Amino acid sequence: MELRKLSISWQFLIVLVLILQILSALDFDPYRVLGVSRTASQADIKKAYKKLAREWHPDKNKDPGAEDKFIQISKAYEVTSKNYVRFLTGWQQENKPHVLLFDQGPSIPLLYKLTAFAYKDYLSFGYVYAGFRGAEEMARQYNINVQAPTILIFKEHINKPADMIQARGLKKHVIDDFITQNKYLLAARLTSQKLFHELCPVKRSHRQRKYCVVLLTAEATKMSKAFEAFLSFALANTQDTVRFVHVYSGRQQEFASTLLPNSEAFQGKSAVSILERRNTAGRVVYKTLEDPWTGSESDRFVLLGYLDQLRKDPALLSSEAVLPELMDELAPMFLLRWFYSASDYLEDIWDSVFHNNWREMMPLLSLIFSALFILFGTVIVQAFSDSNEEQESQPPEKEEVPEKTGKTEPSFTKDLSSRIPKKGFVEVTELTDVTYTSNLVRLRPGHMNVVLILSASTKNSLLQKFAFEVYSFTGSSCLHFSFLSLDKHREWLEYLLEFAQDAAPIPNQYDKHFMERDYTGYVLALNGHKKYFCLFKPQKTMEEEEAMGVSSDLDSSLHLGESRGKSSCVGSKPIKGKLSKLSLWMERLLEGSLQRFYIPSWPELD
């Protein structure tokens, strides 16, 4: 008797445990576990799962029940992630067809990503990994062979794909053609003027007539009977010349009132209009069904009769109107979108900092500190370089001629191959008050302008010789070539030559020979950024230059300017001979071995 009572008690206990397990299973709500509503988007569900998974991971949470909680969270996410119906039913809010790709790879193929990005304004894309446990049910439901990549397009009916393509090694042009043929819903909603232009284009000729059948209906969370009937009619009467669309009368009130002359008769009811666009300004011809659209057999019969009659007689569209532009219903608010994105990023960073261990955070911290080090290092180096340039810009009393081991200009000490001429000519511009600022005062650091001094009588011959001498140096992008008219800007030149202290004394303005001095053939290499110049003066003879040596090369022959421009001197020494040593001087200019004459500021060129 006691054994019988014991067995009954054990049976009762087992039944009680089973009942409790069943009740706990029935009480399991994956949405409640994840802390989201049943209407939450897949992105919100994934975000909530990641947050809870970080918090309750057994390796990071030492709570005794962390492992059970983590298993429960993973199970809840697995259940909710199978809810692909949520993705497919989004066509009503997004007004887009939805595309699903089935493939065996765990990662999304690059070609599919590029396609999704290219058509993101027209379709919504999703990816299903064939190896996922929930994919088997979808494959059976839609009769998919998971051994080959398959693309499904769903429109208004999510129980059956509107179109599908399946092949191994899908090419880009095949996918593009397939997507282009299914860019729009069967009865898409007109949400913007751009979509209206695409779905209902303006006719180009009588053979290219395009008619739009517009359903004007009230907004509803679920498909109304009137819309379902309109959708089934559109599916059964698909034609190349007819496009079926619908409009929410409450959102596009001006558009709807234009097509409904008697708005009171259609108050709170649906209506159907057939229209044809005549121009882009909004002019249309249309015909509105006299009775409200209920989707009954009589309504379908009347609409079908109008469409058949329209093929024979386009004059059926007797009414004419100018439609206002459609309001863009899906236009995103930039500030709100930016705010939500910023808040999501900040929340992810906050969760990563407080729920990840420091070992996982080390790469991120290393990247941040490296960026800060590079930033501050660049600022410090720039500050020191600016101070050095300010010190160098101060004109010294007298700068000695640098020796062979002296400092060279880094911008010009380049490989000889960089000086190969890139053009078959020398571009020489005139230095005037118009080009003065850009060619000298605001010349970029490291650049120099080589200026030839000439007069009106010597212009042609000196320019020809000047181009010949400097042609081999035109390959350097740091050198610019100009010429200055001595007849126009003699005072500017005299002011600069006063800073060439080793040259022969420059007479003042009361000298009787002041305007007779000949400076033609002088060449000045001007560094606009550091405010200094190098001077080339025409040489007398080669023997005199060799006797004077390198150290007195720049100090000689300002006396040559005292020739006072006499014709006898010009005849004894041809004008072109003044620039015979210019190429050697240019070599020394690039080496940085020429004497520099600093000035406090560049004078104005009147």
From TrEMBL:
Residues 395-407 have a biased composition (Basic and acidic residues). Residues 387-416 are annotated as: Disordered. The chain crosses the membrane at residues 6-28. The keyword Phosphoprotein does not apply. SUPFAM superfamilies: Chaperone J-domain (SSF46565). It comes from the Eukaryota. SMART domains: DnaJ. Keywords: Membrane, Transmembrane, Transmembrane helix. Residues 29-85 form the J domain. PANTHER family: DNAJ HOMOLOG SUBFAMILY C MEMBER 16. This is DnaJ homolog subfamily C member 16. The lineage of its organism: Eukaryota, Metazoa, Chordata, Craniata, Vertebrata.
